């Protein structure tokens, strides 16, 4: 049974009779997952959404697998308590290090971003570059996924530790960010890549910077687009697609709500109302 959830001060009861109306839970370490949220708005406009940004503990890309797994478990437990019908792990680092484990631990459908991104990349080119957080790059998750689909392509990965902090600090148009991006792209350009995968949901925010540094023939792959397409297919398969008008999106963070709201304005076109959640009340061991 889907539990009750408080959205914008009102109580909504998602019972067994109307599971389709329950929200989708989306989470990331910060504003990166807003790229997935925007795709949800475009592709699935009737779906209600709870967006969680774990801003108190970002960046995830420098964390260990043990830390990431603990964070992910806490977030999924909390989202279940809010009555979500599905979870989208809008974070490449979490998808790389924790997805397969938590899928075994939780009964709720959980989608990651790596496999949809890998499938799209293989359809685009044969010389594929991946920019990612250090943890995602180290995991080789994209390389493995891409080569499993097509062992004849070539894949190069670069860890980009500075990108997420720069994006969260809203420094996208800072000249320093362009120089950092140039240094990260250089080894990939030397390999004459024809396709570049955003191996972190934050990175599409850098599209103007990256496009200015890449040859025009290099195709950009945003896994967010393809993840939401997979989400739509999964909802239809499970008979969970909502056909009613959606509820207002609920934004929740673990850190500073004001900072998230300020960062979110340019990606959402409005200033979101942001709540704060304290995970000290989330007891993971009893709920998965």
Automatic annotation (TrEMBL):
An annotated GO BP: regulation of cell shape
Q: Where is the active site?
A: 91 (proton donor/acceptor), 200 (proton donor/acceptor)
The EC code for this enzyme is: 5.1.1.3
Could you tell me which SUPFAM superfamilies the record lists for this protein? Aspartate/glutamate racemase
**Listed InterPro entries:** Asp/Glu/hydantoin_racemase (IPR015942), Asp/Glu_race (IPR001920), Asp/Glu_racemase_AS_1 (IPR018187), Asp/Glu_racemase_AS_2 (IPR033134), Glu_race (IPR004391)
Q: Which reaction does it catalyse?
A: L-glutamate = D-glutamate
The biological pathway it contributes to is: Cell wall biogenesis; peptidoglycan biosynthesis
- Where does the record place a coiled coil? none
Q: Its domain of life?
A: Bacteria
User: Per the record's keyword annotation, is Isomerase included, yes or no?
Assistant: yes
- Record's keyword annotation contains Cell wall biogenesis/degradation: yes
What the entry lists under Gene3D superfamilies is as follows: 3.40.50.1860
Residues annotated for substrate binding in this entry: 28-29, 60-61, 92-93, 201-202
Keywords, alphabetical: Cell shape, Cell wall biogenesis/degradation, Isomerase, Peptidoglycan synthesis
GO molecular function list: glutamate racemase activity
Q: What does this protein do?
A: Provides the (R)-glutamate required for cell wall biosynthesis.
Q: Which HAMAP family match?
A: Glu_racemase (MF_00258)
The UniProt family comment states: Belongs to the aspartate/glutamate racemases family.
Protein name in the entry:
Glutamate racemase
Q: What is the lineage of its organism?
A: Bacteria, Bacillati, Cyanobacteriota, Cyanophyceae, Nostocales
Q: Give me the gene this protein comes from.
A: murI
